[in-house]
């Protein structure tokens, strides 16, 4: 059911596998959001999930298909989602957040790979222009994006496409996105990790994870239950199955004792330890001291 023709969600999927993923992702969106959804694909499909299906003229069947072009923004405000996303909550507040910005996205986890195009000084060295983005300008993830359509955004998307077409390899589209962003005067809205949790990577979150992005063999429902069972500040990691959730407020007694001793604040040590120990049984205390 359409909420507003000027706002909507876009998926790009080429190939049956990704079309089916997009359907499942869109179904999760509609559980929590009354929003228009457009699928851009390599073939026309009809179902009750997508309000519109547009066909790509010349699909590449690689990550280049998900490099958005200006013509692929059917709305004034667009949320773009990768097919391997799962939405657990309302996310239309992104349309309000983008009002004062041009583009919203989250930081990529890990160090950005420098953009390299086909213009080489020799076989091993890229041109200075190709590597003109400083290391301190981080890489952004392109699996969850929100746009406010404008001439500035259309120019940015055109630049992103051109840079992607020039690069050496056609696997990742984030390096070309990063370079295009650095060379543009885009007003950027950094999205919190709760709007793009990269499953199954490590992450620090402080509220409900609204968009899970990635794949896991146990399925999205179990992952949602696992990471959102408690909404305190927490770290998600791969130290347990299917994921480990550790409270940021959870301090080991060993750390507390050594921190106090090394900081010289021994006067408050007894009271602090007593307060901490009251929360645990004797066996738990012994176990935590050994950590």
How would you describe this structure to a colleague?
InterPro entries: Glyco_trans_8, Nucleotide-diphossugar_trans. GO terms for molecular function: glycosyltransferase activity. The chain has 291 residues and is an alpha/beta fold. The chain is built from 8 helices and 13 strands. The longest helix has 17 residues, at 16-32. It has 3 domains: 7-190, Spore Coat Polysaccharide Biosynthesis Protein SpsA, Chain A (Alpha-Beta Complex); 194-247, no CATH class; 253-289, no CATH class.
Topology readout:
Elements: E1 7-13, H1 16-32, E2 36-41, E3 52-55, E4 77-81, E5 85-87, H2 93-97, E6 103-105, E7 144-148, H3 151-166, H4 174-182, E8 188-190, E9 197-199, E10 203-205, E11 211-214, H5 220-228, E12 234-237, E13 244-247, H6 253-263, H7 269-277, H8 282-289
Parallel strand pairs: 1-2, 1-4, 2-3, 6-8, 9-11
Antiparallel strand pairs: 4-7, 5-11, 6-7, 10-12, 12-13
The structure class reads alpha/beta
So how many helices?
8
What is the 3D form?
A: elongated
Distance between the termini: 53 Å
What is the gyration radius calculated from CA atoms? 23 Å
Looking at the overall shape, the CATH architecture of the largest domain is Alpha-Beta Complex
The low-confidence parts are 118-129
Helix content, binned percent: 25-40%
Just give the CATH class of the largest domain: Alpha Beta
How much of the sequence lies in strands comes to 15-25%
CATH topology name of the largest domain, in short, is: Spore Coat Polysaccharide Biosynthesis Protein SpsA, Chain A
Number of strand segments: 13
Largest sheet: 7 strands, mixed
* Mean pLDDT over the residues: 86
Strands of the widest sheet, in order across it, are 3-2-1-4-7-6-8
CATH superfamily of the largest domain: Spore Coat Polysaccharide Biosynthesis Protein SpsA, Chain A
